[in-house]
Every structure is written in structure tokens, then in C-alpha cells.
Specification:
554 residues; binds CU-O-CU linkage; six-stranded mixed sheet; binds copper (II) ion; mainly beta; Immunoglobulin-like; seven-stranded mixed sheet
Length: 554
Amino acid sequence: MRATAPGYTHDRDRLARRRLLQILAASAIGSALPVRLAAADRAPAPGTMDYCTTPPRFDQPLHVPGRGGLQGHLRAGSDVLALEAVTRASAPGLAVAARVAGREYIDPTLVVTRGTALKIALRNALSEPTILHWHGLTIDTANDGNGEALASPGSTFDYAFTMRNRAGLYWYHPHPHGATAGQAYRGLFGLLVVEDDEELALRKALEIAPGETEIPLVLHDRRSGAPDRYTPSPGDLMHGWYGDESLVNFTARPYLDVAQTRYRFRVLNASNARIYRLGLRNDRGDALPFLLIGTDGGLLEAPRTASELFISPAERVDLLVDFSPIAVGGFALLESRAFDPMHGELASTTRDPEGAATRHEHDHSNHGAAEGTSAPTSASDGAPFALLQFNVRKRGSTALPPLPTRLSAPTPLASSTGDARPLRLGFAKGRWWINDHVYDVQATPIVVAKDAVETWLIRNYHTSMPHAMHLHGFQFRVLERETSPDPLAPLVVDARGRFVTDLGWKDTVLVWPGESVRILIDFRHPFAGEQVYLFHCHNLEHEDGGMMLRVKVG
Ligand code: C2O
Ligand code: CU
Ligand code: CU
């Protein structure tokens, strides 16, 4: 069971040593953490990739979603909710708009109680086809918005489904195959907050108030020169589209004034391709630990202390941060720490022993061309930078309410009904493949029997790059990670090689080069008849390039 195909096994020593050298050379501060800032007044510059040498300039208040406007909270009930995909004159150029009870919303944060029957009418006011997908939801194919049915310009697509998911932070984004990346980058996405009794009990116990001490943080990056233009080069299409400026809730250089108390931050990585090694530090440069309380599919059973975690495109983390150790007048930073993005391995001369000299043979000519055409404005993945500065402005009024030891009821996991299904991620002929397939609307390479519970063994080739693998329609569990690259060892939290973000319900899992990740998926569903879902990389350039397969579920 634990056998890993040759070529998918990591040559630990070789990679570890080379990557460490690469990252030390690439980064002014090296990968050895914790990193100390020279002085408290030398806060990193936001969004610049060399933040230890530049003076502070977090001068824009973070946008905090309110009752309307950008990301405004919009409760969705049983009335038809009319959404519109619109073009805007200002960057990033596209948005989901709504007008309800005299209020206007841009990319609204939809708030839904579990069990609600929803009716949503999406009118497409763009000049190109689109569709919205509800990322993370337990939903039938007809309402999934998987791109196989589209809203043409001027038409309306009607959704009707019941919210079956646990409380958690989900999101909606475009999914027209081949045009997903550009539309998402240009702003056509928003959050979806599901509430249930456990969620309301937690807010009450922690005395946390949405909009005040509970704040969503939507991370993405843009190319500052032309933030509303999506023009990927061949290199961007291969590695992903990276920006040179980081945004939180659409705010560049953001700061947030906080009190010496506990805050809940619900984080979504809405970037096309960028992976963040997320952590916090205080104004003395020391790491500030936090609590992880939830993942993609909602609350963990119990909180976990962490000092950093990786969040790849489409993943969510639910964090509690206590600012009481920081003096009034001081600050803390949310940052992405240096890591080896492991993209360079594509140039390796290693051949896949399984590849029968064709499929997995690396296409060096294409790679060379791609490197040469990388946009000069894009900052590479893995560079350290700060995202958000928290300015501690006032005392906390009372002692912090005690943290509940149990956040959510444990869900017993079913055991798999058959052998593990192998899924190999690889690169050949200038594109990314899953099991030697690319997306074809006519083909269904994965067929799951009715009521099956499956283990999937996702193996990423060791000269690949990290892929954020996402399954529509089901939340799954990460059982085990094997042969993870050595630089990730400090993030492993258990004997099964898992990271802290692997301990809850997931719909997206990052698979590093050389890694084998075992996940458990319970495919039993409440829908009538066969359903078709998608399994794909959430690096949106990879997805649009066809790193996506149809999954038929009986
Ligand atoms: Cu969030 Cu198929 O995607
Ligand atoms: Cu999805
Ligand atoms: Cu990918």
C-alpha cells in the first residue's frame, strides 16, 4: 500500500540541499526562521518582495466588509437572489453585482443558514459567456456551475439548491472553461459564509462579532502596471499568473487598527497561482503564534496552535489571533514567509521511468521559451513579503473568554470500499496532465460506483511544481502525506506526515513535487441519478490549460 511509483519518490538529499541553497541565495533573509527585523520601526513594505530593506508604508485602511458595497454581507434566504456579472470601468474590471432592498453590493459576501433552499438568478451582463461555481458545496451537477453549461451574454442562469454544507467559509467564482483565470483575476468572485448552530455557539462563546472582531481576509495579487488586464505569456500559462502587488480585501498596502484582544480572521486565497506561507510576527520580529480553528469545510473538532501554514489557491483557513501580548502603540504583521516554490525542477534532466519515453518526457524547448517570456513585473512565488499590518490602538476591555475545547462534533469517517485510486500529476508536451489526460467534455476518465467511499493517492512527479488539487461536490479528509520535500519538515504535525491544515475537512489540497497525498472521499450523495463533478488543479492557468478531469459519480 505504501509503495510509490519510481520517479514519484523524492530524492530527499539532492532536492533538500539544492533547494536550501536556492532559497538562501534568492532571499536576503534566508529561509531560517524566525527572522528578526532590524528595528521595530522598520516594518516591511507591503506587497514588495524584498520587505526587510524598505521602510513601512502600510497607509491604506483595510477594507472591512459591511452591510453593503464591496463584499457587503448579503443574507440569502428563500427569495430569489438576483446577481449580475458586470463590467466596471475601474480595476479589476469585473464584478458580481446585486441590488437588494435599496442597497448595492459588489462581489457580495453571501450569508446562508445551513438547510436554506436557495434560488439564485445570475444574469450575464458581460460580453463573453460566464458561469458561477459554488466552491466547496455539496451540490448536484445541474447547480454546480462547472462550466459545462454557461450563461451566454445577456442571458440568465437559474440555480436552485439547498445549502447542505456545514458552517464554514466557501466562495463563488467563474468557471467557463478556458476563461476562468482571466475572469477570476478581474474580480468576478466573492465569499459564501454558511452558518449553523455550532458556528453561532462559537461566536457567542468567544464574544466575536462579524465586521468587528471577525473579519474575512481575501488574499490575492495583481500586476500593478495594468491591474485590469489579463495577458498571460507562455511562461505564465505554465507556472501560473503572479502579481507584483499583494492585496487583502482588494486593498493594497493595508493596515487594520485593532485592540489588545482576540480576533477571528477567515482567510481565502483567491490568487490565480500564488501560494502563501502565512504567519504573523510582532513588532520585535518574533513569530506570533495563532490558533487554527477551521479549514475549507468548516470548524475543526478542536483548536490547534500554529505559527505558520501554507495556503494555496482556493484554500481557506479560519484563524484566531490574540493581540493582547502587543503593547498599545505597537504592531503585528501578517506575512508570507520565504519558501522554495519548487518550480525550477522542470528544467531537470531526470526522466520519468514510468513515462515510456513519451508522455512524461520533459519538453525542454517549451520550458526555455517560457522562462524567457516571463513578464518582468511578476514577482516569483515563494518570495517573502508582508501582507497586512495590525496597529494595536487600544486596550482590550476584559479578559478573553475561555476557548471552547470542542469546536464541532466529530464526524466518524467511513472506510474506503476498494483499493486506492492512483492519480498522477505530470508535465509533458508543454502542458499539465492528470493520469495522462487533459480535460475533455466528452470524456470521463474517473468513474466512481454508487455509494463508494474511495481513497485517492495523488502523486506529484518530483520534477513537477506544487499543484492545489480541488474536487467539486465533496469535502474530503487528508489521511497521509508521504515523501514530502525536506524543506517542509518543520510544518509536519503528526506521524502521518500531515500539515496542520490537513486536520479538517478539505476541498482543495496542495500536493508538492515528489509527494504522495492520500485522501478519503465519501461519494455517497443525496442527489437523484448519476452526477458529474470535476477534479482539477486550482492554479487557474493550469485549470484553463486542461489540468482537469470529469468525475462521474453513480
Ligand atoms: Cu474553485 Cu472548479 O473550482
Ligand atoms: Cu469547486
Ligand atoms: Cu497545477
